[in-house]
Structure formats: C-alpha cells, structure tokens
Design brief:
It comes from Mucilaginibacter mali. The chain is mainly alpha-helical. The chain has helices at 7-13, 18-25, 29-36, 45-55, 59-62; strands at 3-5, 63-65. A two-stranded antiparallel ribbon has the order 1-2. It starts with a strand and ends with a strand.
C-alpha cells in the first residue's frame, strides 16, 4: 500500500504557490517540493500541522493510501 501525497492538489484548491506555503509553514521550498513529489521518507507532526493550518485542511486531505 503506497502512501500518496496530495499536497499539490490542496495547494491548487487554495490557489497557493509553493513559495507562499513555504513562508507560511517555515519550511524550505526544497523540503516542501520533496514532500509534494512523494520523495520524503517521513514528515514531522508539527510540520504536518503547520501545513494543514496554512492550507485550512486536515491531514487526510494531504496524505492518502492507495
């Protein structure tokens, strides 16, 4: 069961760029890009919480399992 990251979908729904999200979350563009492209091995809960707060969503809106 692969984990799927839908960060780009939520960013598009909120009309938010990677740079804008990066500033709001306090994570570099590179690290967000790695997460967005599904290359990250994990994500810290505080980072996930900050992303969800910035995008006004829940973790399940970003992370899914196929």
């Amino acid at each position: 069961m692969p984990v799927v990251i839908n960060l780009d979908v939520m960013m598009a729904k909120r009309k938010m760029s990677l740079g804008e999200l990066s500033q709001k979350v306090g994570v570099t563009n590179v690290n967000l890009s790695i997460l967005k492209n599904g290359k990250a091995k994990g994500v810290r809960f505080d980072t996930l919480e900050a992303i969800c707060k910035a995008l006004d969503c829940k973790p399940g809106d970003i992370i899914d399992i196929e």
